[in-house]
User: Fold this.
Amino acid sequence: MEFWSWVLSFLFFLSFLCCAESQSPACTPADRAALLGFKARISKDMTGAMATWVGEDCCGGGWEGVECRDEGGGVNKLILQRPEIGDGDDAYIKGHPDTVVFMKGRLSPSLGGLQFLETLVISGMKRLSGPIPKSFENLTKLMHLVLDDNGLKGEIPWGLGRLKNLETFSVSGNHLRGQIPMFLGSLPHLQHLNLARNLLTGEIPEFLSSLRELRHLDLSSNSLFGSIPDFLGEFHDLEYLMLSKNRFSGKIPSALCNLTQLSELSLDQNQFTGEIPEQIGNLRSISVLRLSSNKLTGQIPESISQLHSLWNLNLSRNQLTNSLPDAALFEGGLPSILSIDLSYSGLSFGTIPSWITTRQLYDVHLAGCNLQGALPNFTQPGSLRSIDLSNNYFKTGISFFLQNMISLETAKISNNLLHSDVSSIRLPDQILFLDLHSNHLFGSISGILSSDQKKLLEVFDLSQNQISGSIPEFSAGLNLKVLKLARNKISGQIPSSISNLDKLQELDISRNKISGTIPTSLAKVVGLQWLDLSANEISGKIPSSLLDIKGLRHANFRANNLCGQIPQGRPFNVFPKAAYAHNLCLCGKPLPPCEEE
Assistant:
């Protein structure tokens, strides 16, 4: 019995030693002071991270975003990223959809004292202003520096050239100025360089040619200019090259076609001229090719059909020759293609090629391609997510064209010659965006807008058609954000159930024959930003309850039969006089004051 008691005691002693050895690394006083120096510079923290930075132990005390070395202690990672709990450009606190998540303040130079730091990520905070601290040059062990999507200003400090271990340098989405700094050419291990979405100027410098290990280069959305240097074609490990939204000019260098590992090439929204290099077919790993919004001429190279990994092709908004290569090449080529955009490219099809209509595609954008006759028959419509056939000459086939596109979210078929009763149009249940403006559609919209199955619809544009009848009653639960019915023949009154459109941001029913009064219930649409009721036959007063719509940026009541005092409060009393002109007897700011009775 004593033997087993001794064994149990020994095992307990061993477990104590094991637990003692597995305790969290020590937080050094210097590191704790450096972190608290950062916290002191944060005037507002909506992420909640700084609230966890309490107590003595920054390593094992639950300090969010802080990690330490296993041996000897010391902070080696600081990762503070905005929570991904929202959509669009802003994230929101759960349960409080109006509260944007951000961190306000300045980057503290104290972080330069974290001598063991290998990874520093502070991104997505939006309101971290001021310069990148020069003290960061002391972080000589740093391998990854990511400061994306903050509010940083000034120039990139040259002293960062001391960080010879850097593999990642990413400062996209800030307000950084100046030219691409020379020190970047002296970072021998750099693999990821992202300077996108800043205010940088100048040309791509020659000193970047030394970055032979580069895999990811993103200089998009700056004010860079000049030609693309040939040395970029020598970065044989490069997988992503993004130069979009700058002012680059000249020809696309054929040297880029040597980048056989390249997965994405984005040169869109620049000023490139000349032809697409015939050697483009050498980019055997390319999956995304964006050359849109340039001044490219000539024919689409036949070799483009050899890009077996390409799934996203965008050649839109160029000046290409008015024909395609041999269609047979495309029938068997581009086996991975899912998204194609040739809109306003200079190409003129007449009819959509069969190698497009017979594929299982996600996105088909062929606006302004001189397409005519009946809308096409896609043999695999169920895969389509978005379709843009705007600015063509289609006349028929709209009634059942969209019905079987069960994955469709966006449909743009505006500026055509479609002639059909709008009540015959069958929509898929999940569609979010429908733009049919500037056609010859007629009939009533009651059926298409009243369906309970269309509750997901966010944007509905039937303006500039020949729609008649009245605006239907709206049931609760609709998701409409934009409703455009301008320049039609709609009559009747604005229904009081307009208040059920509680997500509505834009309402344009101008230039119709709508009568009656403006319903006071419109004031319940508090998210409204754009309101145009002009050129109708609306009478009565502008309800003062509309003052509850605080975010209204544009309103137009002109050319109606309105009378009485304009609501005296912002923004109604500061809209231009033209917004109230040609009515019966409106008065009050910005018009002359009302006469006392």
Observations:
- The CA atoms of residues 402 and 427 lie 6 Å apart.
- The chain has five helices and 40 strands.
- The chain has a mean pLDDT of 91.
